[in-house]
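All the exercises in this workshop are built on plain-text protein records. A record pairs a protein's sequence with a compact description of its fold. Backbone structure tokens are a discrete shorthand for how the chain folds in space. Once this layout is familiar, the rest of the handout is easier to follow. As an example, a complete record with its sequence and its structure tokens follows.
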Amino acid sequence: MKERETLEELLGIMREHDLERITVRSGDAVYELVRRQAPAQGAFNGAALGAQAAQPASAAGANAIRVLAPLTGVFYRQPAPDAEPFVAQGDRVEVGQILCVLEAMKLFNEIQSDYAGTVVRILPGNGELVSQGEELFWIQP
């Protein structure tokens, strides 16, 4: 019951301060909440994980397709530290184009786009741990 109260309190803080993400460590417990807009029906196979709250639609994101992490891992925008990023905000991408890599258990998994369009938002920071189901990119068709 205490965890539910904690989650409700954290959701209230997110709404009050219009936060997209919050991570709180309390002893051994770690709470990470991410605001998401519900995907359009049929747009994704599988359910998004994490806390979901209504997210205000921006002009760029209202019709954007959300690319979700297929696994938990460390997000990298480029294939090597000294290389150019796979994509940048504003870039046009095609189906099958590599968007990023996720490192999980010493394996680098290339994440390819299932959609053609323009990258309007890149959510995680380079080197950030992302969870399965977490939004990585917004692509405007």
User: Anything to note?
Assistant: The first strand starts at residue 21 and ends at 26. The beta strands are 21-26, 29-34, 65-68, 73-76, 92-93, 98-104, 107-112, 117-122, 129-130, 135-140. The chain has one helix and ten strands.
